[in-house]
Amino acid sequence: MVTFRFYLVSIVAFFLALAVGVVLGSVLDGGISDSLKDRLARVEANLNDTVASIDDKNTEIKDLQQYVDASAPFAVEGQLPETTAVVVIEPGIELGPVQDLVLRLRQSGASVAGILALEPSWSLKDRADREQLAQIAESADVSVAQLQGAVWSLILRPAEAESASASSTTTTTNTTIPAGQDPSSTVPVTTSVPAPALDILNNAVLKQLQEAGFVKLLNVDGADGAGGQRLSLFVVTGTNSSLGKPGSAAGELVEAASALKIPTVLAELFVPAPPEQENPAQRGEILRSAVAGRELTISTVNDLDLVAGRVAAVLAAGDLQKGTSGNFGYGPGVDGVLPQWLGP
């Protein structure tokens, strides 16, 4: 039987439980709150330490980059004496790093008239372009690759022959013998006179290519090097080449140059692909594709987008003049960031 006492005891028990819950809740809530505040303070302190460390590393990277930029002229100075350098780029290649390559070449002593840029028509997708190039090359019924290679051979062969003929000329002058002096005590004076620089850009075939719109010469401001009878070729491809197959035109050119034993550096300007792109090209992949299946004696540089790559290209060209080739940059298949220093 439910009585008034039952209701009274129930009400008292309810309020007692509520009071106990409030007291316990306030105690526990304070402990949890304090614990969370301590953890948050530790996280903030760790985050501040991490940000400070990142700032220090960014400052260090900036300082190192400034050092690399400032030391580049000293690294390339005098590396390509008596050299005429020709820089050729595929269509679509970013000009900034290539212009800096021209600067480094001039600092090395080489003469560089400018950048020889292939136009999109060089891909020979149109029949009219193929027929026009075949007429210039005086070749018919050959593949596009063979046609392009034939044109490069016509341009480079005269320069290669001229380069091989002489790097300097000498003149001998006899001195006047004073009276009473033994004639055997005098020796002829031999004077070395540097030969004039190669003028490959005035090649008749190259002029026809320019007039037909296959190539274009881009001037680069700045003081030019002295140049000379040695010829070095720099061919630039990259991930932003607008050719259907980046590196294809560069491959034909370096093959023609290698056959003529012209010191040639094949360089890649690597631009990272956007994150959403599927199967993006990796650094050096275009170079490997361009030289695959070809018998070549050249050097490659896969990081022309970096100052280190531009310096490596100049040093590699200097080594090629001495008969040493290699592959430089970052990633698989390279011999190092720069050619090995062998001393004076």
Q: Return Rg in Å.
A: 35 Å
Question: What spatial form do the alpha-carbon principal axes imply?
Answer: elongated
The multimeric state of the shown protein is: single chain
Query: Order of strands in the sheet with the most strands?
Result: 5-2-1-6-7-8-9
Helix-residue proportion: 40-55%
Strand content: 5-15%
Return residue spans where pLDDT drops below 50 for at least 5 consecutive residues: 166-177, 183-192
Mean pLDDT: 84
Number of helices: 8
Along the chain, the helix and strand elements come as HEHEHHEEHEEHEHEHE
- Helix and strand content put the structural class at alpha/beta
Largest sheet: 7 strands, mixed
How many runs of DSSP E, i.e. beta strands?
9
SSE diagram, text form:
Blueprint: H1 4-76, E1 83-89, H2 95-107, E2 115-118, H3 127-137, H4 144-165, E3 168-173, E4 189-194, H5 204-212, E5 215-218, E6 230-238, H6 248-259, E7 264-269, H7 285-291, E8 299-301, H8 307-321, E9 327-328
Parallel strand pairs: 1-2, 1-6, 6-7, 7-8, 8-9
Antiparallel strand pairs: 2-5, 3-4
Helix pairs in contact: 1-8, 2-8, 3-4, 3-5, 4-6
Keywords:
single chain; 344 residues; alpha/beta; 14% strand
Summarize the structure in words:
With 344 residues, the protein is α/β, with parallel strands linked by helices. It is built from 8 helices and 9 strands. Helix 8 links the parallel strand 8 and strand 9. Helix 3 runs parallel beside helix 4 and helix 3 runs antiparallel to helix 5. The radius of gyration is 35 Å and the shape is elongated. About 6% of the residues have low confidence.
